[in-house]
Amino acid sequence: MKKTSQISGFYKKSIPQRLQTLVEKGILTPEDALLLKKGKLLLDADGSDKMIENVVGVFGLPMGLGLNFVVNGREHVIPMVVEEPSIVAAVSAMAKLVRSAGGFRSETTEPILIGQIQVTRVKDSVSAKKAILQNKEDIISLANSLHPNMVARGGGARDVEVHILNAGEAGREMVIVHLLVDVQQAMGANLVNSMCEGIASLVEKLSGGRVFLRILSNLADRSLVRTRCTIPVELLEDRDYSGEQVRDGIILANEFALADPYRAATHNKGIMNGIDPLVIATGNDWRAMEAGAHAYAARGGRYSALTRWTKNEKGDLEGFIELPVRVGTVGGSLRGNPMVGLAYRLLGTEDARELSEIIGAVGLAQNLGAIRALATEGIQHGHMSLHARSVAMTAGAAPEIFETVVEELIDSGEIKVWKAREIIEKVQGREDEARSGALLTAPSSDLPTGYGKVILLGEHAVVYGSRAIAAPIPLAMQARVSPARREGVHLIIPRWGVEEQLAKGAKYKYSIFQSLELILNELDLRQQNMQIEVFPHIPRAMGLGGSAALAVAIIRALSDTFGLNLSDERVAELSYRSETIVHGRASGIDNTLATYGRFIKFRKGSPPEIEPLSLPEPLRVVIGLTWTESLTATMVNKVRKAWEGRKPLYERIFDEIDDLALMAEEAISEADWVRLGELMNINQGLLNALQVSGRELEEVIDIARSNGALGAKLTGGGGGGAMIAICPENAELVAAAIQASGYQAMIADLK
What we know:
751 residues; alpha+beta; four-stranded antiparallel sheet
C-alpha cells in the first residue's frame, strides 16, 4: 500500500481507532501501535533523571499528528507535541488546501553552523583581521583535526570570517572570528563549541589579542530553508467569501505584519506555533529555533514578518517563507526520549535536510491558517480592524490618535487611505482642542450608550453601606449589535485590538467575555449569530466606570437589535451582575450611573437607595489621568482584607466618609463649592488611610490644589487611575498645569 498522509475523518476516531488506522495505512508498525496503546514509550522518572538535574517527576504533553502534507512530492505525517488546541487542526486543514494545489516546495542551503570567537585587547584590529584570514587554512585544518569522523562523513569546518566590532567603552574594538562548520546530520552545537575551543590559542597567537568567549551562534543564517506554495484562487473560496476576497485579505494581513513590528511579533509567533511542536517531537532544540527565527526576522534592522504572501500573474495566491533551520537527526541526546524515535518513524525520514524542508512547510501552513482566519473574520466589515489598521498606518496616523482613527474608519464604511487622512485631520483637530483645555462633550452618535462617572465622595466605603455622591461625565461606552451570517457571537473592539468569537468555556484575558456570556445567557440570546461592536470613549482601568458602562451599552444594543424592550431597571440589574464578575464585590454605584446618567446620592442595598441630586448651577471640574492602570477589584480586595483584620477601626473610617457625603449633599444643594472642595480634601485623607491612593495620584492631586483647585481627590478604585478637582473659576489653568507635568487632564461640567 502506498503511504499517504491524507486520512479522512481521523479526528472523529478514538485513540485506539486512530492507532489501528495508522497501522492499516502503513504509517505505524503493529509493534509501535501496541507500545503507544500501552504507554510503553513514555519518558519515565528514571530516564528523566539522566537528562537534567534535580528531577522530581515527568511533565507530559500531548502528541498529535498533522495530516495531509505533501512536501517536494513526498507524503509526510507530522508528529506535533503541543498543548494548545487548534494548532494541529489548523495546520492539517491548510496542508489539505495546499495539497490540492500540488503541495509545498522546499529547498535548503548547506547545513552550516557558525561558531564565534571573541578576541579582545587587540592593539591593531585591521592587522589582526588580515593575519587571521591569511592563515585561515591552518585554522580550518586545526578545527577539522579535532573531529576527523565528521570530516569523514563529508562535514567539518569550511571557512573563516572576521568581523571588527565597536562596543562598550568608547574606542574599544573587538575582533570576532566566525568559524563556519558543515555539521551534516547533527545539531552540531557541541561539535562547533569544541572546535572554537580548540582553535582559540591559534587565534590568539595570530591576532595578538586575548580570546574571551568561544561559542556557537543560534542565528544559523547560513543554514536556510525556503518553502513556497501556490494556491489557485478558486480553492480559497468558501460559503461566505469569494476566493479573491480571501486572497486579498491574506495579502493585506501579511502587509500589516511586514510593516509593523508589533503585528509581526504575533504573526511570527503563529509560524512558530507550528514549527516548535515538530522540533520538540524530533528531539531538537526549540529554544535555539525560536531565537534564530526571531533574530532573522530583524536582520534588516527592523523586526518584520518571516513570510510573504502575494498574487501572481494568474491571480493565484503565492506563499513564501525563509528562515534559519538547524536541526539534527543523529546524536545521543536526541534519543533520550523514547517517543523521539517513534516521531521519526511517523515522519518517514531521518534526513536532517529533509526535516528542515518539512519544518519550512509546517511553518508556512500554520501561518496560512492563522492569517486566513484573521482575514475571513474581517472581510465582512471591510476586513474589520485588520484592514483599518493597515490603512491607518499607511495614511500616517500618529500613535496617540491611531486607535481613534481606526475606530472611526471602520464606522465610516470607507476603509480607504484618503478617508483615513480626512479622519486624521479631524481627530488631530479634536486632540488639539483637548490639549488646549476645551470642555468635554458627550459622543455625538446615537448608538446605545453606557455613561462614565466620577465619585465626588464615598468610594470604597460605599461597598460597606456608606453613602456616596457620584455624577455622570461626558465620556461613554457605545455599542452596536447586528445579526451575522457567520456562526456564533463575535465581539469587536477596534480601539483595544479585540476581535474574538465567543467560545463556551474558554478562558480569556478580559473579564468582558465572562460578563458577555452571563448577559447573553440571561437574555436567552447565546444561540443567536451576531456581531457586537464596541466603541469605548472612556479610558480603560482609570476608575471612571468603564466596565459598567461597557456592559450597559452592550445590553442596550442587544435590547434594540432583538426587540427586548428592556427597562432601565433590568439594564441596571444585569450590568450589576456583570460588575460582580469584573470586580468581585461591587457596590452598585457604577452600573447605576452607567444606566441612568444622573447626579445621585447612592447607598448600597436590595434595592439600593438612589436619590437624584439637583445642582443650582453646573459644577466645573478637572479630571486628571495618571495612566497608571487601576484594577478596582485589586483595590477592593485590599480594603476588604484590611477591614477583616481590624473591623472596628475601618468601620469608623467608613462612618466618617458617610458623614462627609451627607455634608457634601448640603454643600451641593447650595452651590457651596468651597465647602465641597474642603470635604473632598478630607475624604482624600481618609482614602489615604485606607491605602488606596498612590504616588502618581498624590502628585496630580497636589498639582491641582497648588494651582487653585478648591478640592481634589482620587475617584474610583484608586491605586492609579484618575483624580477629580473642583475648579469653578480656573479649570483651564489647573488642566494646563497637570498636562505640563506629563499627565492628561480633561475639563467637564457636572450637571
